[in-house]
Amino acid sequence: MQDVVLALLVKEPSHGYDLRRRLAAALGPLGETLNAGQVYVTLTRLEKAGLVVQAREDTPVRGPRRKVYAPTAAGYERVAAWMAEGAGPRTDVPEFHLKLVAAAESGLADPLALVDARRRELIRSLAEAQHAALAHDTNGEAGLLLEGIALRLQADLRWLEACERAWSARTKGGKGGGAG
Amino acid sequence: MTRDVPLIRAWSRRSGTDDNPGAGPAGHRSGDASVPALRAVGLSRAYGQDESLVWAVDGVDLDVPAGQTLAVTGPSGCGKSTLLQLLGGLDRPTDGEVWLGGRRIDRLGERALAGLRRRAIGFVFQSFQLMDELTAVENVELPALLAGASPRTARRRAAALLDQVGLTDRARHLPSELSGGQRQRVAIARALVNEPLVVLADEPTGNLDSAATQDILRLFGELRAAGQTLVMVTHDERVAATADRVVSLRDGMLADDTRLDGSGGTARLGALLDWEG
Q1: A127 contacts on B by Cβ (under 8 Å)
Q2: Mean pLDDT across chain B, nearest whole number?
């Protein structure tokens, strides 16, 4: 969560309320479980760690004042490192999805490049699972485990195909439609 | 013309010494490892014309070294089946070249191309495409007979191949008496009967359940170990993952090219476990 919030701040300095709105937009129904407090806790932790600073305070016409945060140099570095590192073997769907959103928003990485790298990782894992599965009896204990792993990896790869379609359409659309 | 080639040399090529050049189909098999079994250069195929012109395959460069198992994947409509047809001489490119074992084939005349397809390429299709009125062994021996083998030689090769695919006891059955997986194994035996330079398979497991799919993949694994060059088109990631190399097609173009390590390692699987939990 810290990495995602940092990446959103790389795009533009922002306050907690706005960050929560952007996260909720990226997460859809899953974002409904995200409470306002969690974003503020994350911001406080990032500030303590020296990764963000309070850039200014906005005073809206109505409502409370809002602290606007911006990433520090160390914050930039941390996000860049997060973008560069491959997703781990047990990365789940929401985590990778947020990484793609963060990559596109921050402009620090090309979502399609992340998808390609992830696909290569997954197909290599699937190759291991398949070669192992072919060497085992499907109905034995090891065979069942391998079957489950292979099906999971296959599902992840199919989802990546959908990601590629959607993000390549957006990239093209973005180029055509300017910065809007 | 009867030629008494070792029965199933294709199955033991990697382990044995291949010191028998010229014994292969019409001498196409090259001992020169630097010549790719299959090569595409700027390969393109367009359909329609003028404004409705669509490039199904668009400038594909691809070298398939001898002995490699290559999977071609991509979403439906990406051009992967068209690519396979071009590589196998079943369709003519609009532009570009196809080379089979060091010989350019895209400009051959119809008759020469048909002969080459029969002798040097083994095809495996999603729908098996066996002759319904012929038994399993008759289906397998047919391409050998068409290529000029004597009935005795053809029958012996067919019987040996059916044994290799585990169907000796089904040799005299009609396709209608076989399961889908068995039919595809007959089709694979048929594809191998003329010891082809390459086997081209279009969605070979597309009509099979998962157990039959695994059987076919085990069979492909044996072919791979024997050094058979194999190119398969598949939309099934699990099938693609058993290849040495996976290329993805997008809109008729090569989008990705990944080498896989089929050495049987399990480091990645181990990383799925969290022992610290």
Answers
A1: 241-242, 260-262
A2: 87
